TrEMBL record:
Its main location: membrane. This is Permease. GO terms for cellular component: plasma membrane. It is a multi-pass membrane protein. Keywords: Cell membrane, Coiled coil, Membrane, Transmembrane, Transmembrane helix. Residues 156-183 form a coiled coil. Belongs to the UPF0718 family. The chain crosses the membrane at residues 31-53, 93-114, 126-154, 200-220, 232-251, 263-282, 294-314.
Length: 318
């Protein structure tokens, strides 16, 4: 898909910068410019397309849809809606309060909260560009299943008493859902492209920069030895390292791509990415405003175990 860009960046490296593509510096410079431009292009296209679809699912409508389903069906619907309505940590509290106020079961709520940061249009776009449609689709399916099963397990724990009392007493009321025209939806999608790219470009540059350094200079033999598929503890270590970090999929995918190119297990790199995006420390701090430490700990443990299992499956299947 991006052969033209690869060729153009090779010309840039050799003719403009005067570097050899066989040198470490040349390989790093090529990786940086190629991945940055590729990611920006894919982001623009995918964010526009998915945002147009997402204009049909504002938070109020999402809440109303989820109130119609119960049991496993509720978890499945919550996880599917989470994949097309990504939220950031700053919006997790009002969403959580709105779901509780609407009477949506706790497990269903967590299915949404688990899937939403892991699966989004931006991550899907970059995954397609980095690993192809097949791997990107597997990742989306795995993230959605993680949300369903994680929510089911948390729901079975019967931890409704771990919600802060004031949350149960809040009455947010109904918000009128705007009726948008096609032009309104196109304008919304364009606005989302600009807004998201403005918010994440720093993460992209940092992530691609780290990935470029790994691509050019990291010792492949060492990484393959300690983080390759043959190391039985590599996935667990990746998740433990990823949980306390703060980033998003856009910043971690280029790093994962570079690590995989160096021989790191695919599942190990994906597990690190999922842990970093789904269990970021700032999100935990914000969620503490509405749920108690025991529920937060259960959320982290259940999600971490699910990510570890997915990581090992990726290493085995890919």
């Amino acid at each position: 898909m991006f052969d033209w860009l690869d060729h153009l960046m090779q010309l840039l490296v050799t003719n403009v910068f005067g570097l050899s593509m066989q040198s470490r510096t040349g390989a790093s410079v090529h990786f940086f410019f190629y991945d940055t431009i590729k990611i920006i292009i894919l982001l623009g296209v995918m964010i526009f397309a998915i945002s147009y679809i997402r204009s049909y699912f504002p938070p109020e409508r999402t809440k109303r849809i989820l109130t119609r389903f119960s049991g496993v069906t509720g978890n499945i619907m919550a996880s599917l809606l989470g994949s097309v309505t990504p939220f950031c940590s700053c919006s997790s509290v009002p969403l959580f309060i709105g779901f509780v106020e609407a009477g949506i079961p706790l497990g269903v709520t967590f299915s949404f909260l688990i899937t939403s940061p892991i699966v989004n249009e931006a991550a899907f776009a970059i995954l397609i560009g980095s690993f192809g449609v097949k791997i990107a689709t597997i990742y989306v399916v795995a993230g959605t299943i993680l949300g369903v099963l994680g929510g089911l397990v948390i729901g079975k724990m019967k931890m409704e008493d771990q919600i802060e009392e004031y949350v149960k007493q809040i009455k947010m009321g109904e918000t009128e859902i705007q009726q948008l025209t096609t032009q309104d939806r196109i304008a919304f999608a364009k606005g989302q492209v600009v807004d998201i790219v403005k918010r994440v470009w720093v993460y992209i540059l940092i992530g691609v920069g780290i990935g470029a350094f790994i691509h050019g200079y990291a010792p492949a033999e060492l990484l393959a030895k300690y983080a390759g598929p043959q190391n039985p503890f590599a996935v667990i270590v990746a998740v433990v390292l990823g949980v306390p970090l703060y980033s998003n999929a856009l910043g971690t995918i280029p790093i994962a791509e570079a690590l995989i190119n160096k021989g790191v297990g695919f599942g190990t790199a994906m597990a690190f990415m999922m842990a970093t995006t789904a269990l970021s420390l700032p999100e935990m701090i914000i969620l503490r405003k509405v749920i108690k430490p025991r529920l937060i700990a259960s959320f982290v443990v259940v999600t971490s175990i699910g990510i570890i299992i997915i990581g090992y499956l990726f290493n085995f299947l890919v």
